[in-house]
Backbone:
């Protein structure tokens, strides 16, 4: 009799296990479907215009790999070095890793919601809230270090949920690995770490301070970050000087204004804001959410640091997926408490809001319209898209100026540029015209020098007439930089002239010391 009862118990357990496995697979498929839809959207549109100036900088650095760069750590250039090997100069191909990172963040957000107890529909709500938000949607349209930083933060949040739910301290190793890779991607990961530290100290999670697994995670993060730290030491922590300069510029130009507004209009959107607000409440005050209060303090700490430190609005964006997940739990609880009719109404309103938010975000961010013109809605309203226009025209214009040089001038000429977009565009697209690599003082390109022997004739791009007359000998206007579409961007508006000059007025070493710049 006992054996028969035991056998029935085992059969029941097997049945429950099978149902649980089937449910998990269905949950995964639903999240994969959402992520796949976003991937298809980006594949269909990412080849429409051209590379962004920031992408050109990453690609140029990818061709000169090191353990660090002035503007960022090495992970993003390393990924794009792989992309160049696999896809060549392909917009869709080189942006594919960013698309996959965004898709993975969507799936991870749904999995966080699942770990918190959300059912399939609520998991989908959390995932769709992320997919419909402007900043993460933008991250799939270009390859930027912020794209991969976003993914690492979501992954770390997932590991933290697993840690707090299971009480298994081994998850600190996963958290440490995510932090180490994050620090190799974008230095703002330090603010995320500050949030983890505060959350640990202010909640019962501080018991892990006695755990060797926490300190093992710390050690793992340091080991992963160490090569870049050594690079910084060898280069006099130049990235700190760069970050101070960029931060002061952003504050001076008003780029840090509207931080609170950007949490509703950029990092998320107004249609999904109630969900992340509910998530913050869930982690801070809900009875079953208090176990995860560490995440609420993480968000609050980052918000305070960026708000009072005058950070840009999108810096906080990676903290919202975990809030979407927490909010989805309360959303599901609310829906379950309603009658069938009312629950259907709430679900319909929710998905309508998600759809409206997604459509609105796509209208501003995704290059849906393939026609390049001044009347294009996205190009008219999105400065980042405008910065993708005109780079092949620039390279062709420089090649025409080169062709206009005398035989004596062409025998020893170089191309001096004023910003990293021009550096990357000419270095990447110029070989098709027989152009040499540029001479640039911006960011990491400055370390590459000016050649030996230095050129005697200079084609100067991206600098102003007063500056070139002051810095170089016998300059003449030789061409213009712009685009045939009437699109106004930095290249066509701020420095459209191309000059031919003699060497610097000062000796090259002295000129080179003064020519170094951040941008």
Residues:
């Amino acid at each position: 009799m006992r054996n028969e009862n035991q056998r029935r118990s085992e059969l029941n357990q097997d049945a429950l296990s099978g149902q649980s496995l089937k449910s998990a697979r269905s949950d995964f498929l639903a999240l994969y479907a959402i992520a796949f839809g976003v991937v298809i959207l980006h594949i269909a549109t990412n080849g429409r215009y051209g590379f962004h100036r920031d992408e050109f900088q990453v690609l140029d650095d990818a061709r000169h790999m090191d353990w660090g760069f002035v503007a960022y750590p090495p992970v993003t250039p390393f990924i794009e070095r792989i992309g160049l090997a696999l896809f060549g100069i392909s917009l869709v191909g080189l942006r594919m890793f960013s698309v996959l990172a965004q898709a993975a963040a969507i799936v991870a957000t749904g999995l966080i919601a699942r770990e918190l107890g959300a059912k399939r529909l609520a998991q989908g709500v959390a995932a769709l809230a992320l997919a419909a938000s402007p900043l993460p949607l933008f991250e799939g349209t270009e390859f930027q270090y912020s794209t991969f930083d976003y993914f690492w933060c979501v992954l770390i949040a997932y590991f933290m949920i697993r840690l707090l739910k299971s009480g298994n301290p081994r998850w600190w190793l996963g958290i440490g690995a995510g932090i180490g890779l994050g620090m190799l991607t974008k230095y703002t990961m330090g603010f995320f770490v500050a949030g983890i530290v505060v959350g640990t100290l202010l909640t019962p999670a501080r018991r892990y301070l006695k755990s060797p697994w926490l300190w093992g995670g710390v050690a793992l993060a340091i080991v992963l970050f160490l090569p870049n730290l050594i690079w910084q030491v060898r280069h006099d922590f130049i990235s700190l000087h760069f970050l101070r300069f960029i931060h002061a510029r952003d504050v001076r130009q008003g780029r840090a204004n509207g931080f609170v507004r950007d949490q509703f209009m950029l990092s998320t959107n107004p249609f999904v804001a109630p969900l992340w607000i509910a998530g913050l409440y869930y982690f801070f005050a809900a009875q079953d959410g208090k176990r995860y209060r560490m995440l609420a303090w993480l968000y609050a700490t980052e918000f305070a640091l960026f708000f009072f430190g005058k950070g840009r609005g999108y810096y906080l964006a990676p903290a919202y997926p975990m809030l979407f997940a927490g909010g989805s739990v309360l959303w599901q609880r609310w829906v379950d408490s309603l009658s069938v009719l009312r629950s259907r109404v709430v679900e319909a309103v929710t998905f309508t809001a998600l759809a409206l938010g997604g459509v609105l975000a796509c209208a501003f961010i995704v290059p849906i319209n393939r026609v390049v013109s001044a009347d294009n809605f996205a190009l008219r309203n999105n400065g980042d898209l405008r910065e993708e226009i005109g780079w092949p025209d620039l390279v062709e214009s420089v090649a025409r100026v080169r062709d206009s040089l005398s035989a004596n001038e062409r025998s020893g000429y170089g191309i001096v540029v004023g910003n990293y977009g021009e550096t990357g565009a000419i270095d990447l697209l110029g070989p098709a015209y027989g152009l040499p690599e540029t001479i640039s003082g911006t960011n990491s390109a400055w370390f590459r020098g000016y050649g030996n022997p230095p050129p005697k004739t200079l084609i100067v791009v991206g600098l102003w007439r007063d500056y070139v007359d002051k810095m170089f000998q016998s300059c003449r206007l030789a061409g213009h930089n712009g685009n045939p579409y009437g699109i106004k961007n930095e290249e066509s508006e701020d420095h459209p002239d191309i000059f031919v000059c003699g060497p610097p007025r000062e000796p090259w070493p002295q000129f080179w010391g003064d020519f170094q710049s951040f941008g």
Summary: The CA atoms of residues 15 and 21 lie 10 Å apart. The beta strands are 413-417, 439-440, 457-461, 476-480, 497-501. The first strand starts at residue 413 and ends at 417. DSSP finds 25 helices and five strands in the chain.
